[in-house]
Amino acid sequence: MEQSIKLSVDAVVFGYESGTISVLLIKRKYNPFKGKWAIPGGFVLNDESLEEAVERELREETGVQINYLEQLYTFGNPKRDPRGRIISVAYFGLVHPNAFKIYASTDAEEVHWFKINELPELSFDHKEILDLAISRLQSKITYEPLGFELLDEKFPFSDLEKLYTTLLGRAIDRRNFRKKILKLNVLDELSEKVSKGSGRPANLFKFNEKRYFQLKKDGIVFDI
Amino acid sequence: MEQSIKLSVDAVVFGYESGTISVLLIKRKYNPFKGKWAIPGGFVLNDESLEEAVERELREETGVQINYLEQLYTFGNPKRDPRGRIISVAYFGLVHPNAFKIYASTDAEEVHWFKINELPELSFDHKEILDLAISRLQSKITYEPLGFELLDEKFPFSDLEKLYTTLLGRAIDRRNFRKKILKLNVLDELSEKVSKGSGRPANLFKFNEKRYFQLKKDGIVFDI
DNA sequence: CCAAAAGTGTTGGTTTTACACCCATGC
DNA sequence: GCATGGGTGTAAAACCAACACTTTTGG
């Protein structure tokens, strides 16, 4: 019997802003799961690569320009989609949420950033996909530097600290954290300062892209 | 236009025996690439899961019963297969090569264990898949214990040492290695000994499965 | 008794942890 | 001047890397 399997891609896109990590979800315009929240994605065209398909769907449905994208996992359970056998190659993305405006179109009735501890009910097996993406995000911080893809270009050290605290879900020692990060030699300290209303103004830092990506390649061992 | 993409699975299966790591390959019986070596695999049936498909193809083509299987990566380049758009979900497997007899059938004209530094030319993009699998195998030893799935049930410590030396591609300090491994507390020392012809007989060890899998779950940081 | 592989401890250097006070600013 | 967040050093403990000789067997 002829194979009748269809191929889709989905993208779990994370953003970080002022102390919380959010995920980009769309409200589905059509059945199945019309009116329910879902991870953005859709069918792959015959002549495009998987990455092209993800970027196209994200652009079409949400207006997001992706900053970092990697393959997460392929979900192939025969029963995962009520329309028939549809397998999905899930991707994992990171963006600076402030860098653009999201808007809904094509299959999306609405687009929204959800904090990862305030998620709505999801369509299909998207909860499973999202859970896997979250655990991948968490484990990434133990073997590579993280932040460039999520933080603004210039940021106070405390932003990075807050990002790690959020991802780890626990407090960290500020002094030791700063020493460890600075020793990685991926941050350049700027002479600009920023004041957050009250308290001493903070020095701004930026990632040194070259050393950052070099370190990603080399890998690190990083116990905070 | 209707989507016309087909879905296949491929499995890179590693085995370890007397100091070398080998990969299971088949010689293709049919075109394209008839007579060339390839990673075992094939099309997914409409109603089977991806894992079922991998295990079925391995059984059919090679007779191998797999011991450990994980998803590796999904290859979706539109040009990767001359027959049309075929995407492949690649898996990564480990077996005890001595535990059974391999034999060729269905699409395979021949099956053979190749040492990973003596590989033949491969069909499709299988070299890329295999290279990725090898680097995954190598990186696995830095974040989880490894050996249970590759070594015999009972083995002298030197077998484990040789496995690590082979995977790392360099010599390691025997004393420090032994200390580090024993500290992980995943090996049970047996009172049996085995003699390899000449030299002092070695004590046999076995993995304590419970603690081994617990440690896999927890993860380790392991610089040899 | 020789060759071959197995087994085993100590030391110095490095890294990691734990921990608390002063600084610069806005109000 | 006080509340707020930013910035900083040190000492003890844990961990890691380097290093070589003795033991047990087979021939």
Describe what you observe in this structure.
- The structure is a homodimer of 224-residue chains.
- Chain A folds into two domains: 6-140, Alpha-Beta Complex (Nucleoside Triphosphate Pyrophosphohydrolase); 155-218, Winged helix-like DNA-binding domain superfamily/Winged helix DNA-binding domain (Arc Repressor Mutant, subunit A, Orthogonal Bundle), CATH 1.10.10.10.
- Chain A has helices spanning 50-62, 126-140, 157-168, 174-184, 209-218; strands at residues 6-17, 20-28, 37-38, 41-43, 68-75, 86-95, 108-115, 155-156, 187-194, 202-207.
- In chain A, strands 1, 2, 3, 4, 5, 6 and 7 form a seven-stranded mixed beta sheet that branches. In chain A, strands 8-10-9 form a three-stranded antiparallel beta sheet.
- The longest helix of chain A has 15 residues, at 126-140.
- Chain A is built from five helices and ten strands.
- By secondary structure, chain A is of the alpha+beta class.
- Chain A starts with 5 loop residues before the first strand and ends in a 6-residue tail after the last helix.
- The interface between A and B is medium-sized, with 29 and 29 residues.
- The structure holds a DNA duplex (27 and 27 nucleotides).
Write the layout of secondary structure elements.
2 copies of one chain form a homodimer.
Chain A: E1 6-17, E2 20-28, E3 37-38, E4 41-43, H1 50-62, E5 68-75, E6 86-95, E7 108-115, H2 126-140, E8 155-156, H3 157-168, H4 174-184, E9 187-194, E10 202-207, H5 209-218
Chain A binds a DNA duplex (27 and 27 nucleotides) through residues 156-158, 173-176, 178-180, 195-203, 223.
